[in-house]
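Appendix C reproduces, verbatim, an entry submitted by the partner laboratory led by Prof. M.T., so that reviewers can inspect both the input and the predicted structure.
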Amino acid sequence: MNVTFNRIDAVNATLTVALSKDDYQQPVDKAINKLRQTIALPGFRKGMAPKSRIQALYGKSVLADEVYKLVSEKTYEYIKENQLQVLGDPLPSQTEQAPIDFNTQQDYEFTFDVALAPEIDIKLTKRDKLPYYTIAVTDEMIDRQIASYKANFGEYDTSVEGVEEKDMVKGLLTENDGKIVIEEAVLMPAYIKDETERQKFIGAHTSDVIIFNPYKAYQGHEAELKSLLKINKDEVAAHQGDFTLNITEITRFHEAEIGQTLFDKVFGTGVVTDEIAFREKVKESLTAQLMPESDYKFLLDAKTLLENKGKDLQFPDELLKRWLLFSNDKRTPESLEKDYPKIIEDLTFQLIKDKICKDNNLQVTEEEIKQQARRTARAQFAQYGLNASEEMIERYAPQLLEKQENVENLTARVLEEKLIAFLKTKITLTPKEVSAEEFNKLFA
C-alpha cells in the first residue's frame, strides 16, 4: 500500500492511495467467511453453503466494500498522522481519478481532492480596542427581583376564613342533576370570568355551600371549564346548569415578608442582616447574572475584529463549494452562492478561534465541565428566584452530564469563557455602562 500527498498550492492538494491484492485480500476473505455464516442458500442449511458459491454471488460486492473501507481508513489515518488541517472531507478527484473496474483489476488507485485550511497568523495587541458594555442594575430591577424572592419563598395558609379573589377554594362539586360529582374540585375566584358568579365565592367560609353556574362562570373559556369539570371539550355544552360546591378548604398564599427569614433563605444564614445590605446583595447577584450578556456582546465584537484581521485569508473555494453541495442534499448551487460569504465569515472566525486556543493551550478539563454543570444548575434555579442549596446542586448537576449533547454544550461554554478571558487580556477594553434598553438595541 502506498499513500502519496501532493500539495498543489497553499489550500489545495491531492491524496492518492494505491492498493495491491496483498493489501485487501485478507479482509476480503474474512468478510466472505463472515457472510457465509449468515446466509442460507437454497439447498443448503444456514452457514453451510460452499465458499465458492458465496464468492461467485457476492465476491465483487464484498471486494468493493472492503477496498473502499480500507481506502477510507488509510486516507484519514494519513491526515491524522501528518496533522493536516482539512476542510470538509476529501472528495474523489474530478481530474485525476481513473475508472475503477472490480471485474478486471487487482491493483487499485484512488485519488482525492483535499481542501486545506489556510495558515493563520493573527496578531492581537493593546492597539486593538473594543468597547465592553455592562448593563446598569436599576432600583426597578432590584425591586422586581425582590418581588420574585418574596413570591418564591412565600407560604400557603389553610387556616384562613373568608374567601378572597386570589384564594384557592377546594370542595365537593356536584352537578344539581347528579351527573357529575367531583370530590376534590379546585377553583380560584380570580379565574372566574363572570363577575356575578365570582362574587358568590367572595367572603365564603369553610363548610359553606355555594350554588353557581360553571358554564356561565367560564363562558368563552372552555379549557378552564373542562379542567374544572374533568370532561372533554365536546361535552362542555351538555353541562350548562347549576352546580353546588361544598367548601372543605380555603388556601391563601402569603408572600414572604422583607426580614431576616427571607434574607437567610435567599443568601444564607447571617450573610445580610438588614434591608439596605439585602438590596445591595441583590444588586451584586443581578450584576453577576448579567455578566454573561456583556461577555456575549464582547465576543460578537471580538468576532468582527478577528474576521477583519482574517479577511485576506485564501480558501479553496471551488473544492469547498463542491463539498458543501455534496454534504447537504438540500442545498442548491444557487442557495450556496447566496450563503457562501457568511459560511466563509463563520469559518474564518472558527479557524482563528481554534488557532488561538491551540497556541495558548486553552483546553477544557473534566473537572471544569463538572464545575460548569454546577454553575448551569445554579443559574437555572436562580431563574426561578431560588437560591439552591449545595445539596440540590450536587444532586441536579450530574443529571446534566448524562446526555452527550449537554456535555458538548458545557464544554463549548467553558472553552468560550476561556477564550473571552484571554481576549480581554490581549486588547484594550473601553468600559461602557448602558441601560438594559440601550444594551438590547446594540443587537438590533
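The CA atoms of residues 2 and 18 lie 5 Å apart. Additional entries are available on request from the coordinating office.
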